[in-house]
Amino acid sequence: MATERVPWLVVGGGIAGVTCAEQLAVQFSENDIYLLTAAPLIKAATNVRQVSRTLEEFSVEEQASSTLERQHPNIRVISSPEVITEDGKHYIYDRLCLCAGARPKLIVDGNPYVLGIRDTDSAKTFQSHLAKARRVVVVGNGGIALELSEESRLGSALGPDWHEGMNLKATQEFSRCIHIEMECEVQRILLSDEFKQLNVPAQAVPPEWPVYVELTNGKLYGCDFIVSATGVVPNVEPFLPGNSFEIGEDGGLKVDDHMRTSVPNIYAAGDICTAAWTPSNLWQQMRLWTQARQMGWYAAKCMAADHLGEKIEMDFCFELFAHVTKFFNYKVILLGKYNAQGLGSDHELMLRCTKGLEYVKVVMQNGRMVGAVLIGETDLEETFENLMLNQMDLSAYGEDLLDPNIDIEDYFD
Ligand SMILES: Cc1cc2nc3c(=O)[nH]c(=O)nc-3n(C[C@H](O)[C@H](O)[C@H](O)COP(=O)(O)OP(=O)(O)OC[C@H]3O[C@@H](n4cnc5c(N)ncnc54)[C@H](O)[C@@H]3O)c2cc1C
Ligand SMILES: NC(=O)C1=CN([C@@H]2O[C@H](COP(=O)(O)OP(=O)(O)OC[C@H]3O[C@@H](n4cnc5c(N)ncnc54)[C@H](OP(=O)(O)O)[C@@H]3O)[C@@H](O)[C@H]2O)C=CC1
Q1: Does the interface predicted TM-score (ipTM) exceed 0.95?
Q2: Among 205, 217, 252, 402, which one is most buried in terms of CB atoms within 10 A?
Q3: Which fold has domain 106-228?
Q4: Could you read off the pLDDT of 248-267 as tens digits, one per residue?
């Protein structure tokens, strides 16, 4: 078997892997950085804009690997799926960072009527199914479900604006309405033959669909196909044989505050990893593009620091959870414990809403602001971010905090 010794090896051409390789390439310009990826195209963050101390916006571009190699002449991209690659080459590394992402967690595996959306190929499959569909059932209540309900049109993980430029049109009948079933789960999925054996009266559910979902609230819906938008599972399997990685509860490779896995000299970043350090009170891991970039960058800094025997502080971006995105064409900013995650009943909520314009929710605990959801052009992100980072006691301000007649920015300057 051909063996090559490489100082720096990064696996995965998604945002975490590419950011990590780019950072190493800048820091060690005299070394070759090897980026190994299964897909022919890589993902790069472009037009990065710092919105505030912890919030950043950027576009994600799918690029040929040659573009990355042109920008960083010391990066070598190898299109192959393993550290022992398909063509039999064996890479021995000094330090390795695993950034192989995650895949959709489907409600059932192996059912041809149940689709997940992750990469360009799965989005295309979804698009072709949708073109012929009269009715689609979307299972889940997260990012993808929200984006799908927004438009009845509808390699590496897709990300912001993944549906732009895709003709995601269903048949006319489907375009007419969105029906939401709350507080229930899918009990079972029936193919049309199985459904027929139930002898359901025709007027209750017209027996004309290829697949049916039975919900825990007793309702039964027929549809052309089901989208399982129910989160992701980290892609750890290819790396487990022969290694003793510690695995987190959510199936990711556990990493410490230096992005180190439990195996010496192997780091991990992005969707594949589980943050196993004690987090700041205002940060939580979510498998997002933003965090993939931050972790990829920070992993490279940690690999470099360990190599040089230097100390490194936890990066500031892990102080406060901050995510900016768009839903229904509204700017959406999520800060800190925006959904009162982990706070139990020990919190208060304050709301301000102007229909069609803005929605502001803050989460307070012991008079301190610990989380916020800002929808629309509220212009409050920087002030709220500071209030959360400072943990200033705001009890005296009460509901004035959200009074639209008070210029809160001046107030706390
Ligand atoms: C439909 C959709 C919309 C999304 N929208 C948003 C959004 O608006 N905002 C946001 O912040 N996040 C969004 N996300 C989440 C975001 O895309 C992911 O969190 C992010 O892309 C994770 O980056 P990553 O680099 O860790 O993994 P990935 O982007 O999945 O990259 C993994 C890379 O590893 C390679 N790979 C996998 N296995 C191997 C192997 N065995 N050997 C070699 N290479 C391998 C893959 O080919 C790929 O290049 C969205 C996700 C989806 C699916
Ligand atoms: N604009 C953005 O920022 C976007 C981000 N993304 C990211 O892409 C990834 C994939 O998105 P998505 O699949 O929507 O994942 P998310 O993690 O966003 O949401 C998964 C949803 O599925 C629900 N769920 C989990 N298991 C089941 C089940 N068995 N039956 C019914 N519901 C279930 C969860 O409910 P519960 O909460 O109760 O557990 C949750 O509401 C995520 O990392 C997401 O953050 C995707 C699209 C847009």
Answers
A1: yes
A2: 252
A3: FAD/NAD(P)-binding domain (3.50.50)
A4: 999 999 999 999 999 999 99
